Amino acid sequence: MQIREYLKQPFDYFNDKKAKWLYIISAIVFALLFLIIFQPYGISEEMSNPVNSTLHKFLFFFSVAFSTFTALTLSQFVFRQLFNFQNVSNEKYILWLALEALFLLLINFGMSFIVPDLGNDFEQELNIWFQVKMYPKLLLILIFPFFGTVIYIAIKRLQTEVKELDQQLLTFKYKYDKTKQKDTVKLLDENNQLDIALSINEILYLESSNQYVVVNFIKNNTIKKHIVRNRLKHILSQADNLPIKQCHRSFAINLIHVKHLTRKNGKVFLVLNTSFDGIKIPVSNSFLEAIKKDFDN
């Protein structure tokens, strides 16, 4: 998938409360760990400075956690609804991430009136240029938990999707008993003449090539190919009540041989359950839901 296409897709990772809280908590934890472990921005000197008491250090890190919590909670649960930023594209949400860093900067500035920064340099914090320099630092701190949460949610969705599909496959194969798998499929050419006859369990998948269809099937534990002069849609009409379903503009697959669904580089594939490794049939988005329904029916 091209980056431009991905950016136009809807951003739906933080649509529920659980995902929002996951993002907020991960941002707080990351910010604290980042500051404590790496001690950037001169914090290491202030941590070793005897002027800063243990209570002062604790209040500083508490203010960081509180500012992050307040800014992101308001952003996710109040401002997104208020400014109608719920259903937007990935491209537009990047703008919202930049605004969240600005929210965090403003709240962090407000907290400095209550809890002074390490080193008691409040006068410096009133300097506009100092705040401008702080903005990219805060944005950088937000980027890592943001993408980490998005990747985690995407992986969990994929795992759930694969699990559901596997369960549907088991149900499908149970209902489609072995006696029917031995039924013969007669494939006709464009003149409605018999071209090849195969049992259902021998057919792996069909691949369209202009006005021809390449039938991939198993014979004597070997994958063979046979070319039928006909269009894919006409071939599929001959197997209307059989588990041979179109999954792509150029492919149709025998569902009884599907092992599981997988994703690679943003594309969806059906992996065949055969002794031949590496056979993956592409699934286009327009056919994905129909394939899932076939498993569920």
Any low-confidence stretches, pLDDT <50, length ≥5? none
Mean pLDDT: 84
Topology as H/E string?
A: HHHHHHHHEEEEEHEEEEEH
Bulk shape: elongated
Secondary structural class: alpha+beta
Q: How would you describe this structure to a colleague?
A:
This protein has helices spanning 3-8, 17-38, 43-48, 54-82, 90-111, 122-125, 128-175, 178-181, 232-238, 285-296; strands at residues 184-188, 194-199, 203-209, 212-219, 222-229, 244-248, 251-254, 258-264, 267-272, 280-283. The protein is of the alpha+beta class and 297 residues long. Strands 5-4-3-7-6 form a five-stranded antiparallel β-sheet. It has a three-stranded antiparallel β-sheet with strand order 8-9-10. It has a two-stranded antiparallel ribbon with strand order 1-2. Strand 6 (244-248) and strand 7 (251-254) form a beta hairpin. Helix 2 (17-38) packs antiparallel against helix 4 (54-82), helix 2 crosses helix 7 and helix 5 (90-111) crosses helix 7. It starts with a helix and ends with a helix.
Please provide a brief summary of the model.
Strands 5-4-3-7-6 form a five-stranded antiparallel beta sheet. The model has no long low-confidence stretch (mean pLDDT about 85).
